[in-house]
Amino acid sequence: MAETERYAQYERYEGGSPEAERLVFQRLAREIMRVQVANREASGAPGHERAFHAKAALGVENARLRFNDDLPAALTAGFARPGADYPATVRLSNASGMRGPDSAPDLHGVAVRVQVTGEESHDLLATSFPVSHARDAREFVAFAKAMAGARTPLRKAYGLFVKLPLAVGLGTAARMRRNVQAATRHTVNSLARETYWSRGAILWSEAGPVRYLLRPSVGGATEPRPDRTDPDFLHKELARRLERDDVSFDLCVQRYVDERRTPVEDGSVEWKEAVSPPVPVARLTIPRQDVTTAEARSAARRIEELAFNPWFTTEEFRPLGNLNRARKVAYEASAAQRGGTRFTTEEPLRNQVLDVPVGLAFRILNRVVPWHKLPLDAGLLNLVFLRKTLRRFNLIDTDVQEAPPKAAAVPVPVDERLRTARSYDGTYNDLSAPAMGAVGAAFGRNLKPVYRPDLFDTPNPVTVSRRLLARESFVPATSLNILAAAWIQFQVHDWVNHRRYKEGGRTVEVPLPPGGGTWANQPNGPEENVMRFAENEGIELPGDRPPVLFGNTASHWWDGSEVYGGDERTARSLREPDGGARLLLEGGHIPIDRTGIPLAGFKDNWWMGLSAMHTLFAREHNTVCDALRAEYPSMSEERIYHTARLVVSALIAKIHTVEWTPAILATKTIDIGLHTNWQGPPRNWLNQLGLWLLEAHALTGIPKTMPDHHGAPYSLTEDFVTVYRMHPLIPDDYELREYHFGQRLETVGFHDIQGAAAESQIRKTGLANTLYSFGIANPGAITLHNYPDALRHFQRDGEIIDLSVVDLVRTRRRGVPRYNDFRAGLHKERVRRFEDLTRDPETLSRLKDVYRDVDEIDTVVGLFAENPPTGFGFSDTAFRVFILMATRRLQSDRFLTVDYRPEIYTPLGIDWVEKSGMKSVVLRHCPELAGLLPREASAFAPWRPVPPVENGAAHEGG
């Protein structure tokens, strides 16, 4: 019988399915973490205690579990074999989540880890009462919440008689109180003489469900008299007992009879011995020893760091029932929080109370006055509540989750080096979920995907591109320079890259419209009546789910992977020989390979602007390395490299947050809001009071907070990729000038500075002249009819593609909703007429000609067509994805929150990030440009042009 069939007959999932139950358990796990925090605060204990069983009485690593020689054949399976003998770790404890005197009424527990092999172990957990006070996980968590932080008799009474009935009802609360009172009224003098029951059932291979218990073996030394006035008498009693003799327990199992008398799903019903007699199967022996020695105390400390979980077993001995299924996610979350690898951020009560009325008030107000037309302080608070709404409704978990839960091996300890350094591939940023955000992790969603294969070619994307996107005359973005265009491509290469099938693999075919001519899909290839380009590789999903998940070949984190690479082999190949910390540079430029493309972390779609960014930040890395080596001479080259990477990656994140974004969204509200993200709000009483009342977490910059994923595993999203389609920023031609006398060097087209041509051109022009040339020129505006011609006939990887068509097709095929649904999903009113998007007669006519109705408008087209707020370089609809994801990229990242500190970055590293910006990076490596940078604006605003001087020399005289 298959394992799933073996246990499915006994279990009933809450909500009717494993997936529905998983969502319930995830929420309950977060509530258990809050209980853990409340208990810690009430007890004053440093760090986080265990959520339950906080106080240990004994921890030993040298116990043994030996199965009986006469083990019944029906119970022989897996590691349970006659005479099999295994090492075991044992922890005996009080059950409360807060440490207290041993004489206080309490349950007690035992946790046993049986080590079968290096890859197989089994955790057995039991408590000193045969039943749980709770039928299921909901009741268990309700009781824990009611008693959280309750140390005094008054607080405990309030929890039991007020909070608990409000949560579960009067009758259930009364039953739970009776169970607890019955369990705790028993006087305990020695944990060695108590019996411990598993409460929940486990599968015992072909024997079916069992509950197990550990009861004291017959015999043993005379019990020493405990001193019950000593708050730690249970530990001391065990220590004295073990000085004289072994302590042993018989492991017994009770077999399932029927669902009425031996229920699997209801943990509050006792499996009575008269119905299911306990069958001895093994003996657990804690050998005689001195537990007061340094060696024993060290072992006890190691055990306190362990996370026990009944799911650390094999599928053959899988836990069963609602309480046990909930324990997997709850214990994982609790252990991660206790170990400092997962975090809870509790919203103050005043914020919770005011959230609903103030949020409603802003929603009503925004029907009349949008946020960007409000006074400054009101606009800032409006954005706070808009972000709250987006976090609540627009973070969708796309991970293929485990449901129902599966048995697992004990997790491998985290490599200590990854606590202080970014991994090469983005793993272990979240230490409790190592694969989160790593290379290969799926793109998430801000909106539910709409998968419509029947509309992939409707309307024809070539027609859409030619009628609505193609550049007819260059429309400049006059508040920006071309460095802003280069910068965003530099960033996108760090963030997102969908895997494509290699040449000869699966392709997308887009038919050319009637009368639309022909297209050559490869250099020197035949003219065809279709455009053809490589398909994205999707992630296979179980069942009949459509292929709407795609893996990211970059990591999702802001980790500088475009500079450093996304795997160890690439990263090491970019460093100086023999493990040096510095990156390879030749004459201040990045070395090139035999194809003429630089040896960079990410080099697709290479052009001169991208080369300038990579060159600057490769030089910046090396300068940081030199500074660290001088300041900390004993630091190893490996540590210097990883620390410099942390510093440069954080500096890039800061520049994007407080410089690039306020440059492209040039309003006072956004400028203050983004500086608040990094360094906290302005120091005026009105801002401080407003945030204290409504969003206290924003009172400090994000780097001073704890990581928070806001209910969904961190990833960048397909919707995020869509709003960052900013190709209109790229001009088709460029004037290269030298900065000394303003002389024109040459005028080039994009194709002249793209691919292998980029490096010869930047070396000929020089970095300073390149930065100056791009600094004084404007990029294109992000609007319709402004998509660069060079990208509409673009050669890469053996293909010739129209990137504007690719943008449209990719968005459709990845299931991003069309523009009107996209707007509505981001809490904006739908457009009813084409006239709601544009008043330009020609554009209006073309929209009506291309699309049958407004609901058919492509997302990219709608975003480009939308009239943006004053000062904005892109639409308010796109901005909504931005305001959600911009803070999320910082807030989720351990190295930009809890580990953004001198101990990890070094004091020099933190100081470097805090005191630096794009201007200081430019001037560190091109100090001759000092007089040309904007005085009052960022480096992404137009620079001061040098008036051309005749014959390259200044005239003397007045």
TrEMBL record:
A UniProt-annotated Pfam family: An_peroxidase
PROSITE patterns for the chain: PEROXIDASE_3
Keyword ATP-binding: no
MF annotations from Gene Ontology: catalase activity; heme binding; metal ion binding; oxidoreductase activity, acting on single donors with incorporation of molecular oxygen, incorporation of two atoms of oxygen
Organism domain of life: Bacteria
GO biological process: defense response; fatty acid biosynthetic process; oxylipin biosynthetic process; response to oxidative stress
Keywords assigned: Dioxygenase, Fatty acid biosynthesis, Fatty acid metabolism, Heme, Iron, Lipid biosynthesis, Lipid metabolism, Metal-binding, Oxidoreductase, Oxylipin biosynthesis, Peroxidase, Plant defense
Signal peptide: none
CDD domains, A to Z: PIOX_like
Positions of the Catalase core domain: 49-288
Cofactor(s) named in the record: Ca(2+)
Protein name as catalogued: Peroxidase family protein
Organism: Streptomyces tabacisoli
Taxonomic lineage: Bacteria, Bacillati, Actinomycetota, Actinomycetes, Kitasatosporales
